[in-house]
User: Fold this.
Amino acid sequence: MKMKNGDHSVQGIDLTKIVKEFGSPLYVYDADKIVSQLQVLKNAFSNQNIKIKYAAKALTNISILKLLKKNGAGVDVVSIQEANLALKAGFEPHEILFTPNCVSFEEIKQGVEMGLVINIDNISILEQFGHKYHNTVPCCIRLNPHIMAGGNSKISTGHVDSKFGISIYQMPHLLRVVKTTGINVTGLHMHTGSDILDAQVFLKIAEILFGVAMDFPDLTFIDFGSGFRVGYKEGDITTNVYDLGIKLGKAFDMFCETYGRKLEMWFEPGKYLVSEAGYFLTKANVIKTTPATVFVGVDSGLNHLIRPMMYDAYHEIVNISNPKGTQRIYTVVGYICETDTFGWDRKLSEVREGDILMMKNAGAYGFSMASNYNSRYRPAEVLVYDGKAHLIRERETMEDILRNQVEIDIK
Assistant:
C-alpha cells in the first residue's frame, strides 16, 4: 500500500473510495502484494526444486485461490470442504496437499477418492490407511519434532503437548506399521508453528527430517511447513527468507547427495502470502469518553477480526479519513456484547464519528475466522486486481442468517 498526500491507496485506488463504493466493515486485498510475496519465496529458494503449497485456511476466498493458482502455487488444505474449494478454483488433485487433524478415516477415504496428496498425522489413521490401501496409494507422514517455536502458544504446533503430528519418539511404532502394511511413503512433513524468526529453527527441523528420511527409500519430497514471520509494527524483525534459502538449501543439497537423489522441497505458507496484502476497514460509530479512557466504538468486532482477542495479535490502526489530524490516544473497541478490543491506547489522528479506520495485516485469519456472533452479518471482501477493485464476496444479509434455520410450530 502506498501513501500519497496523506491518502492511503492500493494500486492507486484510495481506500476511502473503496469503502464508499462497497460499504463498511470491509476486507480489501492487494493482489500485487500476494503475488510479490509468492515470488520472494520462489527467488529465495531458486536453487531448489521448490513447491509452494498455499495454506488455504489463512484466506479461502475462491478468487484468492485462483490468483495463487495462476501464479504457480499449489495448495495445502485441512478439510474436504477446503479441498472442494481448491478444485473449484482450478487446482489439480495432485497439486492439493490434504493435511487434516483429528478427522475420521471416512474423511481420509474421501481425500483418496478425490486424488489428493494425503498427509497423515497420527498412528491410528496410519494403521487404517495401511490396512486398506497397502502400497496402492502414496502418502505423506506429518511428524512432531518436539520443538517449541513460533509466537503465541496457540499457534505453536510442534511442541511435546501439541495434538499435531506423530511424535518422533514413536518412530519404531510408525516404522513397524509402514513395514507390516506396506505403505508407500513418498513425503515427510513437519510444521512447528507461525512467526518463526530464526533460520536455526528450520535447520533443527531439517536435521530431524533428514535423519528420519533415511528409513524411507521412496521419498519424492520433504515438506518443511512454514512459519515465516511478517511484520506487524514499524521496525518488527521478520524472517529473512533469503538467508534461510542459503542455509537450508545448502543443508538440503548435502542431504540429497547422501540420500542418493534430488528431492522436492515443499513449504506451506499462509500468513506470509496474504497477511500484509489485507486491510480491514471499519467506521467509527461513536467516540465515548470515560474518566480513564477515550473509546472509539467501530462497526465491527471480534465476529469479524478475532485475532487481537484470541491471540493478543497487534494490528496497526490508522485513521484514513483524517490522516493529518492532531494525534490523540484512543482505545478502539467493537460493537459486540463482549470485551472486543482491537487496540489499547493507540495514537491516532483525531477520530470523529463517521471516520474510517484501517487495520493493517488483516489478510490472514481475518475473514476466514469470522462468525455471525450476535447475529451480525459477515463483511464483504474486495480484491484489487490489475488496478481495479473487484467485489469477491457480497456482504451478508438477514436471509443468510436464516438460510439454514428451520422454524417449528411453537404453540
About this structure: The CA atoms of residues 15 and 278 lie 12 Å apart.
